[in-house]
Amino acid sequence: MRRILSIGCLLLLASGCHKAPKHVPPPIPVTAIRIEAQTIPANFDYIGVGESSHIVELRARVEGYLQSINYKEGGLVKEGDLMFVLDERPFIASVDSAKGTLAQKKALWWNAVQTKDRMVPLYRQNAVSQRDLDNALADELATKANVDSATADLYKADLNLGFASLSAPVTGMASQAKYREGALISPGEQSLLTTIYVLDPIWVNFSITERDLLQWRHDIKFGLLKWPEEMKFQIEAILGDGTVIPSEGFIDFTNPALQQSTGTMLIRAVLPNPEHLIYPGQFVRVLVKGAIRPNSILVPQTAVIQGENGTFVYVVKGGKARAQPVSAGAWYQDYWIINEGLKNGDVVITKGVNKIQTGSSISIQSMIPSLVPQKGK
Q: For residue range 172-181, what is the model confidence (pLDDT) as tens digits?
Protein backbone atom coordinates (compact mmCIF):
# COMPACT_ATOMS: atom_id res chain seq x y z
CA MET A 1 0.00 0.00 0.00
CA ARG A 2 2.79 2.38 0.84
CA ARG A 3 4.43 1.54 -2.45
CA ILE A 4 1.28 2.49 -4.36
CA LEU A 5 1.05 5.83 -2.54
CA SER A 6 4.70 6.60 -3.27
CA ILE A 7 4.22 5.93 -6.96
CA GLY A 8 1.13 8.20 -6.98
CA CYS A 9 3.08 11.03 -5.34
CA LEU A 10 5.89 10.71 -7.82
CA LEU A 11 3.40 10.92 -10.69
CA LEU A 12 1.85 14.06 -9.23
CA LEU A 13 5.24 15.68 -8.76
CA ALA A 14 6.23 14.78 -12.30
CA SER A 15 3.08 16.29 -13.72
CA GLY A 16 3.68 19.56 -11.80
CA CYS A 17 7.09 20.04 -13.47
CA HIS A 18 5.51 20.80 -16.90
CA LYS A 19 4.67 24.61 -17.43
CA ALA A 20 1.34 25.69 -18.88
CA PRO A 21 1.56 27.06 -22.47
CA LYS A 22 2.20 30.89 -22.56
CA HIS A 23 -0.80 33.07 -23.72
CA VAL A 24 0.01 35.11 -26.90
CA PRO A 25 -2.23 38.25 -27.23
CA PRO A 26 -3.92 38.69 -30.61
CA PRO A 27 -2.69 41.49 -32.95
CA ILE A 28 -4.12 44.90 -32.14
CA PRO A 29 -6.46 46.23 -34.88
CA VAL A 30 -5.44 49.68 -36.17
CA THR A 31 -5.96 52.08 -39.06
CA ALA A 32 -2.89 53.21 -40.99
CA ILE A 33 -1.70 55.36 -43.87
CA ARG A 34 1.03 54.69 -46.42
CA ILE A 35 3.15 57.82 -46.83
CA GLU A 36 3.19 59.42 -50.26
CA ALA A 37 4.75 62.86 -50.68
CA GLN A 38 2.61 65.50 -52.42
CA THR A 39 2.56 69.20 -53.26
CA ILE A 40 0.15 71.25 -51.16
CA PRO A 41 -0.72 74.96 -51.03
CA ALA A 42 1.01 76.98 -48.32
CA ASN A 43 -1.53 79.50 -47.05
CA PHE A 44 -0.72 81.97 -44.28
CA ASP A 45 -3.32 83.40 -41.92
CA TYR A 46 -3.13 86.88 -40.33
CA ILE A 47 -5.33 89.53 -38.77
CA GLY A 48 -5.64 92.68 -40.86
CA VAL A 49 -7.24 96.10 -40.54
CA GLY A 50 -9.14 97.87 -43.30
CA GLU A 51 -8.01 101.31 -44.47
CA SER A 52 -9.36 103.63 -47.15
CA SER A 53 -7.21 103.43 -50.27
CA HIS A 54 -7.75 107.15 -50.91
CA ILE A 55 -8.73 109.75 -48.32
CA VAL A 56 -9.75 113.13 -49.70
CA GLU A 57 -10.17 116.19 -47.52
CA LEU A 58 -12.64 118.51 -49.23
CA ARG A 59 -11.53 122.07 -48.40
CA ALA A 60 -12.75 125.53 -49.38
CA ARG A 61 -10.43 127.40 -51.74
CA VAL A 62 -12.25 130.73 -51.61
CA GLU A 63 -13.92 132.73 -48.88
CA GLY A 64 -17.69 132.90 -48.75
CA TYR A 65 -20.84 132.06 -46.85
CA LEU A 66 -22.00 128.43 -47.03
CA GLN A 67 -25.27 128.47 -48.94
CA SER A 68 -26.21 124.79 -49.18
CA ILE A 69 -25.10 121.23 -48.34
CA ASN A 70 -26.06 118.98 -51.22
CA TYR A 71 -25.17 115.44 -50.09
CA LYS A 72 -26.29 112.91 -47.50
CA GLU A 73 -23.82 112.89 -44.65
CA GLY A 74 -22.33 109.44 -44.12
CA GLY A 75 -23.60 108.25 -47.49
CA LEU A 76 -22.05 107.35 -50.81
CA VAL A 77 -21.09 110.15 -53.17
CA LYS A 78 -20.00 109.62 -56.74
CA GLU A 79 -17.26 111.48 -58.54
CA GLY A 80 -18.66 114.77 -59.81
CA ASP A 81 -21.61 114.94 -57.37
CA LEU A 82 -22.27 118.48 -56.06
CA MET A 83 -21.63 118.58 -52.29
CA PHE A 84 -21.33 122.22 -51.12
CA VAL A 85 -22.26 125.61 -52.61
CA LEU A 86 -21.01 128.95 -51.32
CA ASP A 87 -22.87 132.18 -52.02
CA GLU A 88 -21.96 132.74 -55.68
CA ARG A 89 -23.14 136.36 -56.02
CA PRO A 90 -19.84 138.05 -55.09
CA PHE A 91 -17.98 135.77 -57.51
CA ILE A 92 -20.44 136.39 -60.32
CA ALA A 93 -19.95 140.14 -59.79
CA SER A 94 -16.18 139.70 -59.94
CA VAL A 95 -16.51 137.83 -63.23
CA ASP A 96 -18.70 140.58 -64.73
CA SER A 97 -16.26 143.25 -63.56
CA ALA A 98 -13.32 141.35 -65.04
CA LYS A 99 -15.16 141.00 -68.34
CA GLY A 100 -15.74 144.78 -68.48
CA THR A 101 -12.12 145.53 -67.69
CA LEU A 102 -10.98 143.11 -70.38
CA ALA A 103 -13.25 144.73 -72.95
CA GLN A 104 -11.84 148.17 -72.03
CA LYS A 105 -8.25 146.93 -72.34
CA LYS A 106 -8.99 145.34 -75.71
CA ALA A 107 -10.41 148.63 -76.98
CA LEU A 108 -7.26 150.51 -75.96
CA TRP A 109 -5.12 147.82 -77.58
CA TRP A 110 -7.16 148.08 -80.80
CA ASN A 111 -6.69 151.83 -80.84
CA ALA A 112 -2.93 151.46 -80.29
CA VAL A 113 -2.69 149.00 -83.15
CA GLN A 114 -4.55 151.35 -85.47
CA THR A 115 -2.29 154.26 -84.50
CA LYS A 116 0.85 152.17 -85.11
CA ASP A 117 -0.48 151.01 -88.49
CA ARG A 118 -1.01 154.61 -89.57
CA MET A 119 2.45 155.63 -88.34
CA VAL A 120 4.39 153.06 -90.37
CA PRO A 121 3.65 154.47 -93.92
CA LEU A 122 4.01 158.06 -92.66
CA TYR A 123 7.42 157.23 -91.21
CA ARG A 124 8.51 155.81 -94.60
CA GLN A 125 7.48 159.12 -96.17
CA ASN A 126 9.40 161.02 -93.48
CA ALA A 127 6.11 162.58 -92.38
CA VAL A 128 6.65 161.55 -88.73
CA SER A 129 9.78 161.13 -86.68
CA GLN A 130 11.38 157.93 -85.43
CA ARG A 131 10.35 158.90 -81.92
CA ASP A 132 6.69 159.14 -82.90
CA LEU A 133 6.85 155.66 -84.41
CA ASP A 134 8.61 154.27 -81.34
CA ASN A 135 5.95 155.72 -79.08
CA ALA A 136 3.23 154.11 -81.19
CA LEU A 137 4.97 150.72 -81.06
CA ALA A 138 5.45 150.99 -77.29
CA ASP A 139 1.83 151.94 -76.79
CA GLU A 140 0.75 148.87 -78.78
CA LEU A 141 2.92 146.56 -76.65
CA ALA A 142 1.73 148.15 -73.38
CA THR A 143 -1.94 147.84 -74.26
CA LYS A 144 -1.41 144.23 -75.39
CA ALA A 145 0.15 143.49 -72.00
CA ASN A 146 -2.85 145.10 -70.29
CA VAL A 147 -5.15 142.82 -72.31
CA ASP A 148 -3.16 139.77 -71.20
CA SER A 149 -3.37 140.89 -67.56
CA ALA A 150 -7.12 141.51 -67.79
CA THR A 151 -7.56 138.10 -69.44
CA ALA A 152 -5.75 136.48 -66.51
CA ASP A 153 -7.94 138.40 -64.05
CA LEU A 154 -11.05 137.12 -65.82
CA TYR A 155 -9.71 133.56 -65.73
CA LYS A 156 -9.04 133.91 -61.99
CA ALA A 157 -12.53 135.28 -61.40
CA ASP A 158 -14.00 132.35 -63.34
CA LEU A 159 -11.92 129.94 -61.23
CA ASN A 160 -13.15 131.51 -57.99
CA LEU A 161 -16.71 131.24 -59.21
CA GLY A 162 -16.10 127.57 -59.93
CA PHE A 163 -14.53 127.07 -56.49
CA ALA A 164 -17.77 128.33 -54.93
CA SER A 165 -19.31 124.98 -55.91
CA LEU A 166 -17.51 121.95 -54.44
CA SER A 167 -18.04 118.57 -56.08
CA ALA A 168 -16.76 115.12 -55.10
CA PRO A 169 -13.38 114.48 -56.76
CA VAL A 170 -13.70 110.71 -56.14
CA THR A 171 -16.36 108.11 -55.43
CA GLY A 172 -16.53 107.14 -51.77
CA MET A 173 -18.26 107.48 -48.42
CA ALA A 174 -18.52 111.07 -47.18
CA SER A 175 -18.32 111.96 -43.50
CA GLN A 176 -20.40 114.63 -41.77
CA ALA A 177 -20.14 118.28 -42.78
CA LYS A 178 -17.95 120.41 -40.53
CA TYR A 179 -20.07 123.54 -41.05
CA ARG A 180 -23.74 124.30 -41.46
CA GLU A 181 -25.49 126.68 -43.86
CA GLY A 182 -24.75 130.34 -43.23
CA ALA A 183 -21.25 129.80 -41.82
CA LEU A 184 -18.43 131.94 -43.17
CA ILE A 185 -15.88 129.65 -44.83
CA SER A 186 -12.30 130.83 -45.33
CA PRO A 187 -9.30 129.13 -46.92
CA GLY A 188 -6.66 127.94 -44.45
CA GLU A 189 -6.50 125.57 -41.51
CA GLN A 190 -10.25 125.85 -40.81
CA SER A 191 -11.29 125.25 -44.41
CA LEU A 192 -12.08 121.52 -44.08
CA LEU A 193 -15.68 120.92 -45.09
CA THR A 194 -15.79 117.09 -45.02
CA THR A 195 -13.74 113.99 -45.75
CA ILE A 196 -14.37 111.36 -48.42
CA TYR A 197 -13.15 107.77 -47.95
CA VAL A 198 -12.66 105.62 -51.03
CA LEU A 199 -13.79 102.07 -50.16
CA ASP A 200 -13.43 100.39 -53.55
CA PRO A 201 -10.72 99.27 -53.69
CA ILE A 202 -9.94 98.95 -49.97
CA TRP A 203 -6.54 98.59 -48.33
CA VAL A 204 -5.99 95.87 -45.74
CA ASN A 205 -2.89 96.20 -43.59
CA PHE A 206 -1.39 93.27 -41.70
CA SER A 207 1.96 92.41 -40.15
CA ILE A 208 4.23 89.38 -40.32
CA THR A 209 6.61 88.52 -37.52
CA GLU A 210 10.38 88.19 -37.63
CA ARG A 211 9.93 84.55 -36.65
CA ASP A 212 7.82 83.97 -39.77
CA LEU A 213 10.46 85.59 -41.95
CA LEU A 214 13.22 83.40 -40.51
CA GLN A 215 11.11 80.25 -40.83
CA TRP A 216 10.29 81.03 -44.46
CA ARG A 217 13.97 81.63 -45.21
CA HIS A 218 14.81 78.23 -43.70
CA ASP A 219 12.01 76.39 -45.54
CA ILE A 220 12.91 77.94 -48.89
CA LYS A 221 16.58 77.09 -48.43
CA PHE A 222 15.80 73.41 -47.85
CA GLY A 223 13.12 73.16 -50.54
CA LEU A 224 10.20 72.94 -48.13
CA LEU A 225 8.54 76.10 -49.42
CA LYS A 226 8.29 77.83 -52.79
CA TRP A 227 6.96 81.33 -53.50
CA PRO A 228 4.73 82.06 -56.53
CA GLU A 229 6.28 83.47 -59.67
CA GLU A 230 7.17 87.15 -59.37
CA MET A 231 5.87 87.03 -55.77
CA LYS A 232 2.30 87.38 -57.01
CA PHE A 233 0.34 86.34 -53.93
CA GLN A 234 -3.45 86.34 -53.80
CA ILE A 235 -5.20 87.82 -50.79
CA GLU A 236 -8.51 86.58 -49.44
CA ALA A 237 -10.32 88.43 -46.66
CA ILE A 238 -12.71 86.79 -44.20
CA LEU A 239 -15.07 88.85 -42.05
CA GLY A 240 -15.73 88.28 -38.36
CA ASP A 241 -18.91 86.32 -39.10
CA GLY A 242 -17.08 83.99 -41.47
CA THR A 243 -18.16 85.73 -44.67
CA VAL A 244 -15.51 85.32 -47.37
CA ILE A 245 -15.05 88.36 -49.60
CA PRO A 246 -15.87 87.00 -53.06
CA SER A 247 -13.08 88.88 -54.87
CA GLU A 248 -9.38 88.28 -54.31
CA GLY A 249 -6.80 91.01 -53.88
CA PHE A 250 -3.06 91.33 -54.13
CA ILE A 251 -0.10 92.71 -52.17
CA ASP A 252 1.02 96.12 -53.42
CA PHE A 253 3.35 97.28 -50.64
CA THR A 254 5.85 95.68 -48.27
CA ASN A 255 7.64 97.83 -45.73
CA PRO A 256 11.38 97.30 -46.27
CA ALA A 257 12.12 97.64 -42.53
CA LEU A 258 10.93 95.86 -39.41
CA GLN A 259 9.23 97.92 -36.73
CA GLN A 260 11.59 97.81 -33.77
CA SER A 261 8.81 98.22 -31.22
CA THR A 262 6.93 95.10 -32.38
CA GLY A 263 9.46 93.13 -34.42
CA THR A 264 7.00 92.91 -37.32
CA MET A 265 6.92 93.94 -40.97
CA LEU A 266 3.94 95.85 -42.36
CA ILE A 267 2.24 94.45 -45.48
CA ARG A 268 -0.49 96.21 -47.44
CA ALA A 269 -2.99 94.42 -49.67
CA VAL A 270 -5.49 95.87 -52.13
CA LEU A 271 -8.90 94.22 -52.42
CA PRO A 272 -11.89 95.02 -54.63
CA ASN A 273 -14.73 96.10 -52.35
CA PRO A 274 -17.68 97.00 -54.60
CA GLU A 275 -20.30 96.06 -51.99
CA HIS A 276 -18.45 97.91 -49.18
CA LEU A 277 -18.21 94.79 -47.03
CA ILE A 278 -14.98 96.07 -45.47
CA TYR A 279 -14.83 99.49 -43.80
CA PRO A 280 -11.81 101.46 -42.61
CA GLY A 281 -10.78 100.30 -39.14
CA GLN A 282 -12.55 96.95 -39.49
CA PHE A 283 -10.65 93.81 -38.44
CA VAL A 284 -10.61 90.92 -40.93
CA ARG A 285 -8.80 87.62 -41.34
CA VAL A 286 -6.29 87.76 -44.16
CA LEU A 287 -5.43 84.58 -46.05
CA VAL A 288 -2.25 84.89 -48.12
CA LYS A 289 -2.34 82.33 -50.95
CA GLY A 290 -0.06 81.40 -53.83
CA ALA A 291 2.91 79.65 -52.18
CA ILE A 292 3.30 75.86 -52.26
CA ARG A 293 5.06 73.17 -50.22
CA PRO A 294 6.51 70.62 -52.67
CA ASN A 295 7.09 66.96 -51.70
CA SER A 296 5.30 67.36 -48.39
CA ILE A 297 4.80 64.37 -46.11
CA LEU A 298 1.48 64.55 -44.25
CA VAL A 299 0.07 62.46 -41.43
CA PRO A 300 -3.21 62.95 -39.55
CA GLN A 301 -2.89 64.84 -36.30
CA THR A 302 -4.15 61.76 -34.43
CA ALA A 303 -1.00 59.87 -35.46
CA VAL A 304 1.47 62.30 -33.87
CA ILE A 305 2.32 61.73 -30.20
CA GLN A 306 4.22 64.02 -27.86
CA GLY A 307 6.45 61.93 -25.63
CA GLU A 308 9.04 62.65 -22.99
CA ASN A 309 11.82 62.60 -25.57
CA GLY A 310 10.01 64.53 -28.27
CA THR A 311 7.47 63.96 -31.01
CA PHE A 312 7.03 60.52 -32.61
CA VAL A 313 4.67 58.31 -34.58
CA TYR A 314 4.20 54.56 -34.71
CA VAL A 315 5.28 52.88 -37.95
CA VAL A 316 4.59 49.29 -38.90
CA LYS A 317 7.67 47.07 -39.43
CA GLY A 318 7.25 43.32 -39.90
CA GLY A 319 3.77 43.36 -38.44
CA LYS A 320 4.87 45.16 -35.29
CA ALA A 321 4.67 48.75 -34.09
CA ARG A 322 7.83 50.79 -33.76
CA ALA A 323 8.16 54.35 -32.41
CA GLN A 324 9.68 56.67 -35.02
CA PRO A 325 10.88 60.14 -33.90
CA VAL A 326 9.72 62.90 -36.25
CA SER A 327 10.03 66.66 -36.66
CA ALA A 328 6.58 68.15 -37.18
CA GLY A 329 6.17 71.49 -38.92
CA ALA A 330 3.04 73.44 -39.78
CA TRP A 331 -0.54 72.22 -39.93
CA TYR A 332 -2.45 71.64 -43.14
CA GLN A 333 -6.17 71.05 -42.63
CA ASP A 334 -6.28 68.12 -40.15
CA TYR A 335 -2.76 66.97 -40.90
CA TRP A 336 0.74 67.60 -39.59
CA ILE A 337 3.46 68.38 -42.11
CA ILE A 338 6.41 66.15 -41.19
CA ASN A 339 9.74 67.78 -42.00
CA GLU A 340 11.99 64.93 -40.86
CA GLY A 341 11.66 61.29 -39.82
CA LEU A 342 9.42 59.76 -42.50
CA LYS A 343 9.80 58.84 -46.15
CA ASN A 344 7.69 57.58 -49.03
CA GLY A 345 6.35 54.09 -48.42
CA ASP A 346 6.39 54.21 -44.61
CA VAL A 347 3.21 52.87 -43.01
CA VAL A 348 2.08 55.04 -40.10
CA ILE A 349 -0.60 54.08 -37.59
CA THR A 350 -3.31 56.76 -37.43
CA LYS A 351 -5.99 55.20 -35.19
CA GLY A 352 -5.47 52.93 -32.21
CA VAL A 353 -2.17 54.50 -31.12
CA ASN A 354 -3.42 54.65 -27.52
CA LYS A 355 -3.60 50.83 -27.41
CA ILE A 356 -0.10 50.02 -28.61
CA GLN A 357 3.51 50.39 -27.69
CA THR A 358 6.80 49.54 -29.34
CA GLY A 359 6.83 45.85 -30.24
CA SER A 360 3.06 45.38 -30.23
CA SER A 361 1.71 43.04 -32.90
CA ILE A 362 -0.43 44.96 -35.36
CA SER A 363 -3.34 44.04 -37.58
CA ILE A 364 -4.12 46.78 -40.11
CA GLN A 365 -7.89 46.84 -40.54
CA SER A 366 -8.06 49.72 -43.01
CA MET A 367 -5.83 52.16 -44.90
CA ILE A 368 -6.82 55.81 -45.28
CA PRO A 369 -6.01 57.68 -48.52
CA SER A 370 -2.45 58.92 -48.68
CA LEU A 371 -3.22 61.98 -50.82
CA VAL A 372 -4.99 64.78 -48.96
CA PRO A 373 -7.83 66.63 -50.78
CA GLN A 374 -6.57 70.18 -51.31
CA LYS A 375 -9.69 72.09 -50.28
CA GLY A 376 -7.76 75.26 -49.50
CA LYS A 377 -5.98 75.51 -52.82
A: 999 999 999 9
